[in-house]
Amino acid sequence: MKVERLLQISVALLAALGSLFLAFGQGGNSALPLLATIGAFLSVYLTDIKGWITLNRNLANFAALIAVVFSFFDFWDDGSSKLVAIAKLLIYLQVVLLFQPKTTRVYWHLAVLSLLQVVVAAALDFGVTFGLMLIPYMFTALTTLCLFFVYRETLRVDPELKAAHDAVENRPLFSFMAKKPVESNDSTVVSAPVISLSGQLPGNLASVFSSGKMFAQVLKMGFFTLCATVVLFYCFPRFDQGQLSQSFGGEFGATTGFKDQISLNDMGHILQSDRFVMRVRLSDLNTGTIIDTEYEPYFRGTSLSTYFPNSKTWIVGNLKNYQVSELKPPPLKTNLVRQQIATNQSIHFDRTNEGVLLFSIYPAYSSLNTARDIVDNQTLGIVSMATDAQAQVRQPDQYEMLVPWNPFGADADLIPCRHPLRDRQFHHYVQNDLTQVPLDKEFADTLFHGLTETADELVADIPVNGDEKPTQFAIAQRMERHFVLDGNYTYSLHVPVHMKNTRLDPIEDFVVNHRTGHCEFFASALAIMLRTQKIPARVVVGYKGGEFNSVGGYYAVKQKHAHAWVECFLSPDNLPVGISKEDYPNGAWLRLDPTPASRPSPNRKDSGTIFDTFLDWFDYVELAWRDYVVGMNSERQEKDIYKPLTDNLVKPFEGWVSREQWSKFFRDSLASMGIHMSDEWFSGFASIFTMLVLLLLVVIFELIRTLFRRYWTSIKRLFLRWFPSKSHRTGFYFKVEKLLSKAGWQRKESDTPREFITSVIADCKTRGIASEMLSPLSDLTDWYYQIRYGSKDLAPAQQDAISEHLLLIEQQTLAMRKIKR
Known about the structure:
With 821 residues, the protein is α+β, with helices and mostly antiparallel strands. The protein is built from 25 helices and 21 strands.
């Protein structure tokens, strides 16, 4: 196959890979990159092979200008689309170039555009697929550059082909379905000659290409490039990414799917994202065995207590009124598991008044590995990393806490309250903030009239004995069951517009009208219904469950697992039957999850298929990619690379450069000889002893240097006998030239090695000097040509003779230099 055809295919493949990078990076908006990928391969057939569609340079420049203007409006549309607009512009320009007649200019522009596509895709996509695609892209790029070099060398040495190449720029403005150049009956080509490796191409290039050596060399370069890239990536000091993502407005640096406030009209879209948030591993406290529960764990974020009907929003409330303390050790006789959480550093967690919000099963307790700056707001149930309010600090890359583990029974939904009931501040929070129906009672009856009637009907439906009133626990269970089983509610991320009654509050409209919504609607409705019955309730937001990875033994929590549920406060007198008041002396928070689609689901580990196992492995590899490539910031590099390297390599040798260690060594050594040195900074005896040691070292050094100079020639001869030059090395000839140059013979740049040695032999014969080295010079020159240009190996006798000839020539040239002196 001709070089130019291979170059055309290679460039098309490079352009296609660049478009695929953008396709993966844009996710759902990948139609244009995929079409560009198909167009790259079509251009080889339609433009390069058949010549049916070709764009003149002037027409192509005009089309490129239109593409720039067309993309200009997308670029300034909004901040989040800037990178996408740049990606589209690169694709437009690439398509314009692909359907032009190929010249060195076009090839080079296509290669640069492809590289720019990879750069843009790197800011859009951080997945492992991007990293895996970089490997074939690297090999394709190296192959393309090698073919491009051969192509340019062919043009350089063949004037006819160079003229045909330059004439391509002067084709008609536009041609469609043009006939491909054909050969006449006398086998003469009508069109310009096609570039191939035969003809004027230098023989060494043709040999390299036809024998496959070039592609073998590409594989070698690719392998060493990968190795060098890995070493430089992990060893080269780096700076933190900082606010890089915010400058582009892309997903990098986005916040989590969790929200610390709920706006009922625009929350559904966050539940559709597959963006990774954190990895949670639960293990046994004593054995370290990974725990995979059959029920999905709840990872608490924060609790919301105040609802504003005007903005249809839940907020946390006034956090300044609540005390915050360090995370406490666990109480005795508590069934605990170790919870280890690794966060995605490319997204930012929300902040509280204390610092960065952390997610966890609640309540959480400290372990030996828990950071000291993690604090607990026991009133609101918020765990956070304490930081300065003005500091822009990210969440820790990983943290550990101990959490109770009661996956079954009534205890599973009960969280012990750690506030004394006599605490006035806590009493105000429970009895006012958590029982207040929005605004005053009279207006609330109008605002939530249908919801209140529904709550009253549910309470009246609870069976009781005589005049007894239903317990708060029974009321909470009945209302939860209403949403989950009895109320014909439907879980949906989007409520059709025709089903909404805009004159009603969204929560009221949800309960009495369409009964369709996502978890925020269910949690909001249940919390308000409980409050109408004077039961303290709050909305809790965080994450529920995750995708359990059986390979890594962790839950992969993503934005789509963001969830909302309800907690109601039960005093010790209102605890469910069978629960000991001694275990909950201050009462408990009862967790209620009214969302039908979020009920506990069986684990799929026992029923997993081969495809599930493959997905687990892929997710595990992607996790490693996020941890050790995408998340390899300066702090991670210091902790995972520099510090272990220092501990293992440098610390064992610290004593060798420690002044104290050497001082102790000399003191102990002298003490063993009966010489005791004082602790003063200056000692006359020590000074005399040091000078004597230095004098002895100087004498030893001069003696060794004198002996080495006297016997250097003999040592060198022995060395060359023990380590003779190998047949595949041609360095002996260059040593001959060096020795001859010292004797006055310098090789001209226009002389070949044989011409130079021939002139030296002739000069020696004319002057009648150095006759003994003439034959060795001739032999060494013949052997050099045999190795360098004949690709042959020397016989063993010839290999042994090389060192002897070099010694003889060195002696002759040295004698000539002495005569000249």
